[in-house]
Amino acid sequence: MATAVTDRRTVSWPRIRGTSGHDANPATTRRCGRAPVAGRTRDRHTGGHAGAHPTRQDDTAADLDHRAELHWSQLGGVEVRWRGGYGYVIGYLDDDETDLNAPEETVALCRIGYLGTPDDWTFALYDPATDSYQDTVLPDGSLTGTLTDILDCACRVHLADIPPRPTQP
Description:
- The chain is α+β, with helices and mostly antiparallel strands.
- The protein is built from two helices and eight strands.
- 18% of the residues lie in helices and 31% in strands.
- Strands 3, 4, 5, 6, 7 and 8 form a six-stranded antiparallel sheet that branches.
- Helix 1 packs across helix 2.
- The longest helix has 18 residues, at 54-71.
- Mean pLDDT is 75; it is low at 1-48.
């Protein structure tokens, strides 16, 4: 029981389970009047994102690579490296492949965060000037979006100065 003194009276009330911190499960505890959202959990080590399941991570990488192959000829492929609740999207620039021993040139594109559904991801563009990721609004004005919208936005920013590769007849 917790007590408080108001107007020279002592008032007692039961402590609500989960409000003290150590015994609360952040995924199921109501805080600040908001109910927990299904599929979204909070984790202090990942900046609030619980992260995608390994199967979702594989599907995400395959979806982004396929999108890049179809719509961004400047890229030879896309890789997603997962750390905590975030995926860091790296593009491999497609070159003429005459020197197979030369290292592939890469460009950091963006950071994505899984929000519990395949069509809802947070998004931050890579800023090479500060070597950091900046939360970004998509062209439609939303703070979250689909993987294709996110990849297209990041590629428009980072690949604007790289001419598209000619298409093969």
